[in-house]
């Protein structure tokens, strides 16, 4: 699948300068397809030729790269362009300055054909050091989102651009403010948008194994942050193991009730009875989670997660995860005769402990000798 990077940032932040720098740099040896998801003229410097393809303006530029301005539906444009760019190293989609990156990101999860051909690699936000604090502090009418705050909140990597236009002493404060909005994103200082192109691709921010690698970084207490009043970010780590069935119910409720206000979230959880880490990440209502890497024998099993969004109640969110904790030691042992809830109370025998994250596997005392799970070690389920 072709990796896709979403490039976002406020007007004047330096996105177009960055794209031109990438396209004109002969050293990286990569073939990029640049897609400008907006109306208006193509902003990159066209070098060779221009052709029209079904409403999209396709321009071939230096070093074998191309640029395309999409007018209309991004999904359909990507499908049309696939045969022209399937051998390219990466795609960069530049959003408009006022755009919310979430709908573009969700494109790569919702449409099956797009998901089969492309993989979302990461979201990169460019900010203008001279003006970013003013942008973040801008007051909006009720119900109107501050686009600059949102672009920072969704980012996997933030390019702190135009550092030559500000006093270097203010840069730590700017970075602290950005971390206050998004504690998970890596910040990179630059001027004139000059960043090594290879560092912009293959960051694998939406790959579950990568969440496992990077989750501890945003939980380090010594990192300086400055809270932003317009955004809520909760980063938490705690000991203990979680019941998988209670966890599934919690995640379902969170997405159903908070989906519109959830920007980005990711985490690594220690599920009782499982030797593998449960790793999850999501954008808005689009959630992905699975058991990935095995816990190492020497590794301390902890639960770590971060949620970034608007109107999040940190205490409620924390208490909800804490309520999923369970004891690894169970009330019953293999061979015990119990009653389990199967619509009605049914007699059975415990045949296994901690089966696929469930406290009990139970053989029912009936002709079929059917096996069922006791999902939670409580009298409401098993007694």
Identify the notable features of this structure and list them briefly.
single chain; 383 residues; 5-stranded antiparallel β-sheet; elongated; CobW-likC_sf; chaperone; CobW C-terminal domain-containing protein; hydrolase
Written overview of the protein:
The chain is α/β, with parallel strands linked by helices and 383 residues long. 24% of the residues lie in helices and 32% in strands. It has 10 helices and 20 strands. It has a 9-stranded mixed sheet with strand order 3-4-5-2-6-1-7-8-9, sandwiched between helices. A 5-stranded antiparallel sheet has the order 10-15-12-13-14, covered by helices on one side. Strands 17-18-19-20 form a 4-stranded antiparallel sheet, with no helix packed on it. A hairpin with a 3-residue loop joins strand 17 and strand 18. The longest helix is centred in the middle third of the chain and has 15 residues. The termini are far apart. About 7% of the residues have low confidence. InterPro entries: CobW-likC_sf, CobW-like_C, CobW/HypB/UreG_nucleotide-bd, P-loop_NTPase, Zinc-reg_GTPase_activator. Belongs to the SIMIBI class G3E GTPase family. ZNG1 subfamily. This is CobW C-terminal domain-containing protein. Keywords: Chaperone, Hydrolase, Nucleotide-binding. Pfam families: cobW, CobW_C.
């Amino acid at each position: 699948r072709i990796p896709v990077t979403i490039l976002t940032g406020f007007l004047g932040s330096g996105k177009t300068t960055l794209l031109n720098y990438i396209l004109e740099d002969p050293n990286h040896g990569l073939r990029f397809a640049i897609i400008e998801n907006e109306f208006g003229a193509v902003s990159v410097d066209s070098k060779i030729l221009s052709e029209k393809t079904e409403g999209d303006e396709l321009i071939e530029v230096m070093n074998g790269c191309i640029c395309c301005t999409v007018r209309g539906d991004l999904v359909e444009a990507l499908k049309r362009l696939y045969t022209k760019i399937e051998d390219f190293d990466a795609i960069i989609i530049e959003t408009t300055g006022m755009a919310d990156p979430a709908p573009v990101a969700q494109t790569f999860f919702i449409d099956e054909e797009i998901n089969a051909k492309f993989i979302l690699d990461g979201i990169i936000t460019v900010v203008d050091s001279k003006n970013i604090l003013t942008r973040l502090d801008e007051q909006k009418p009720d119900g109107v989102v501050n686009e600059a705050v949102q672009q920072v909140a969704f980012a996997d990597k933030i390019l702190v651009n135009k550092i030559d236009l500000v006093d270097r002493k203010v840069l730590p404060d700017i970075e602290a403010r950005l971390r206050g909005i998004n504690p998970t994103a890596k910040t990179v200082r630059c001027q004139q948008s000059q960043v090594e192109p290879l560092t912009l691709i293959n960051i694998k921010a939406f790959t579950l194994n990568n969440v496992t690698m990077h989750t501890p970084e945003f939980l380090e207490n010594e990192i300086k942050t400055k809270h932003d009043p317009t955004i809520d970010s909760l980063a938490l780590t705690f000991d203990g193991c979680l019941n998988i069935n209670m966890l599934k119910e919690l995640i379902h409720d969170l997405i159903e009730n908070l989906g519109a206000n959830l920007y980005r979230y990711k985490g690594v959880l220690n599920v009782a009875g499982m030797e593998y880490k449960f790793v999850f990440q999501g954008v808005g209502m689009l959630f992905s989670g699975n058991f990935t890497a095995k816990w190492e024998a020497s590794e301390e099993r902890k639960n770590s997660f971060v949620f970034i969004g608007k109107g999040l109640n940190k205490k409620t969110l924390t208490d909800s995860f804490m309520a999923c904790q369970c004891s690894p030691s169970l009330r019953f042992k293999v061979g015990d005769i119990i009653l389990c809830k199967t619509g009605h109370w049914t007699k059975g025998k415990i045949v296994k402990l901690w089966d696929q994250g469930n406290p009990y596997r139970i053989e029912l005392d009936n002709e079929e000798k059917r096996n069922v799970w006791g999902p939670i070690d409580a009298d409401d389920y098993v007694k």
